[in-house]
Structures are given as C-alpha cells and as structure tokens.
Amino acid sequence: MTTSTGEAIQFWVLGIVAVLGALGTVGMRKAVHSALCLAGTMIVLAVFYLAQGAYFLGIVQIVVYTGAVMMLFLFVVMLVGITAADSLKETIRGQRAAAVLCGIGFGILLIAGIANASLHRFTGLAQANAGGNVEGLARLVFTTYVWAFEITGALLITAAVGAMVLTHRERTERPATQREQSEARVREGRNVTPLPAPGVFARHNAVDVPGLLPDGTPSELTVNQTLRARGQVRDVGGEQERRVRKLEQRSDEYVEGVTEGEGAPEGGRDRSGDNDGANHAEGAAK
Amino acid sequence: MNPANYLYLSALLFTIGAAGVLIRRNAIIVFMCVELMLNACNLAFVTFSRLHGNLDGQIIAFFTMVVAAAEVVVGLAIIVTFFRSRHSASVDDADLMKL
C-alpha cells in the first residue's frame, strides 16, 4: 500500500507543527506556555494516529493526553505558581551546551539507524482493521495480552493509592477555635481588634489597595497576607501623599495671599476660590 | 511518501524531549519532556503497526499510554509534595542527600 499525496501534504504540514510544538515545550520559559505547546504537539500526533488507521488510539490520545494529562499538568502549574519562571542560570558550567551536543549526537545516531532500514511500503491495516479497529484491539487485549492488561490494572490502582499517600497530609493538632484565637490576640496585646479593612482611607476600595494612615502612608496590615507575600499590593499611598502635600502648599499660598495683600484681595481670593472649586471637581471626577 | 518519514519525526521528537530533560531545571517542564518522549515512542509503535499490518504495535502504544498516565499521577504528586516542603519546583533544590 502506498501513501496518498494528501497524506504526504498532511504529514509535512503537521510534522512541522509537531516539531515546533516540541521545541516550544523545551524552550519556553514559563511552564504554562510549555504545557500549551505540548498540548499542540499531542493533538498533531492524534491526527497522525487517525491517519494511520489507529482510530481508537487517536481518540484515546485526545481524551487521555490532551484532556486528562495536560489538564493535570496545568492544575499542578497553577498550584506551584504560574508566575514562577524557570531561572536561566546554569548551575553546572557548560552543562547546557553539553546537553545540546548530546541531543544532536543522539538524534543523528537514531535517524541514521532508521535510514539504514529498508522501508519502502506500508503493509497497511486494511486486513487487520477489517472487523473494526476497536474489535481487533479488544480481541488482542483479552487474548494475547490479557496478562499485561491485568498487570496494568494493578499498576493503575497502585498509582492512585501512591498519589493519595504522597499528597495527603494528616492534621496532627486540633485547629484553634475562634475563642482561642481571640484570647491569644488579647494575651499578645497586639492587634486586639480585627485587622483594619483595605482601601477604606484610600481612593479605591479594592482588596489589593492598602488603607492609608492619617499621615498618608499605606498600612501593610490592611492587605491580605497572601497578596503581601506575592508582592501584589497596589500602592497608591505615594500619589495620595503628593496630592495632600500639593493641597497644603496651595492653601499656604492662599493664606499668604490673604494676609499680605490687604489692598487687592479680591482678585487673588477669586482666583484661589476658582482653584479650590476646580480641585473639588477634580476630586469628585476621580 | 516513504514510511520512514513517520519514524524520522518520531526520532526527532524523542531527541528534542531527551535534550529538554537534560537542559531544563523546572521539574514540571522536565516531566513534560518525558511525556513528549513517550508520545514519540507511541508514534513509532503506531507506524510499525501499519508497516507490518497487524495491531500489536497499537496494543503496545495503548499500554504505554496507561503507564504514562500512572507515571504522571505519581510524578506530579511528588512534585506537589516537594513544592510544599521546599517552596520550589526546581530540580536543583532536591539536594538533601548531597554530601
């Protein structure tokens, strides 16, 4: 059986996509981008399986790999920190160059080995798939490979138990009740009241904007601990401080104008009044 | 088209995956590269199945998928546990047994 022109075109177009996806998996700095590139490669491989008569495997590839396995990967990436980019610092000097060299050498060996084989034409799966691909696979799984199939079941159960054992954490002490927490706060004498809310004295009431103290400095206490740890606190304190200082300076100028210019206070006062009104309008708009 | 083209692609993907395992330091990406290598093997198995005209290659690819699924579950559980204790997913930080 020879391959059709359509299959050749499909191979060259999708083959390039698959290789680009694989290179992206290795080269992307962020784990999420790597995962998306790998998902693309896996979908291309699923198309190749379908094109080669492995209908069951093609569908399973999409359902199991791009569906379940990649979802699991993305889940762990979210858990481990989506912003955590890989550091590009080499820990062993020359290791990266050596790895690339090894990869190229290995690839040349592998491809040269395949080039030595005399492969000219596919036998084709028309006969093997005659009774249906799934039926053919089922016959093999439950006759020739039934022992391997049973072992696979044991493997899956072991893997499930192993994952549960690895990720499960036993709670060794009783969680503190609300009463105990409040008593501990009083005993420490620090933050006896609940923590101040964010944004109350700032311009925004978003949770990542710290509340401002009377002198205009932001209060770190008002922002959630997690946001603080991630460094996602949005600081508007500086801007607010600048505005307060500007306002004070303007009022000082106004007071000076009133005290020294008794002769012609009208114009100055009017101008200042306008200014003040404009300030209020600006504040309201903001 | 020469049937070996699929095998060349498979070899290329396997090589890229292997190089990725050596190059990258993030445990999750190293793991993805291992998945890429397993997938490249599956492509070779499916191609051989078509070359020889029987379904045994597809059965082996099917078992590879099952083993890969089990491997992903345990491996990611290890990464999550490691991240909890070290707050890092880098393979360089797993150096507790280093002299």
TrEMBL record, chain A:
Its main location: membrane. Keywords: Cell membrane, Membrane, NAD, Oxidoreductase, Quinone, Transmembrane, Transmembrane helix. It comes from the Bacteria. It catalyses: a quinone + NADH + 5 H(+)(in) = a quinol + NAD(+) + 4 H(+)(out). It is a multi-pass membrane protein. GO terms for molecular function: oxidoreductase activity. Residues 170-190, 233-253, 267-286 have a biased composition (Basic and acidic residues). Gene3D superfamilies: NADH-ubiquinone/plastoquinone oxidoreductase chain 6, subunit NuoJ. InterPro entries: NADH_UbQ/plastoQ_OxRdtase_su6, Nuo/plastoQ_OxRdtase_6_NuoJ. Its EC number is 7.1.1.-. Pfam families: Oxidored_q3. The chain crosses the membrane at residues 12-28, 35-56, 62-85, 97-115, 145-166. It is found in: Cell membrane. Residues 170-199, 233-286 are annotated as: Disordered. NDH-1 shuttles electrons from NADH, via FMN and iron-sulfur (Fe-S) centers, to quinones in the respiratory chain. Couples the redox reaction to proton translocation (for every two electrons transferred, four hydrogen ions are translocated across the cytoplasmic membrane), and thus conserves the redox energy in a proton gradient. Belongs to the complex I subunit 6 family. This is NADH-quinone oxidoreductase subunit J. It comes from Streptantibioticus parmotrematis. The lineage of its organism: Bacteria, Bacillati, Actinomycetota, Actinomycetes, Kitasatosporales.
UniProtKB/TrEMBL annotation, chain B:
The keyword Oxidoreductase applies. The keyword Translocase applies. It is found in: Cell membrane; Membrane. InterPro entries: NADH_UbQ_OxRdtase_chain4L/K, NUOK/Mnh_C1-like. Its main location: membrane. Pfam families: Oxidored_q2. GO terms for molecular function: oxidoreductase activity. NDH-1 is composed of 14 different subunits. Subunits NuoA, H, J, K, L, M, N constitute the membrane sector of the complex. Belongs to the complex I subunit 4L family. This is NADH-quinone oxidoreductase subunit K. It comes from Streptantibioticus parmotrematis. The gene is nuoK.
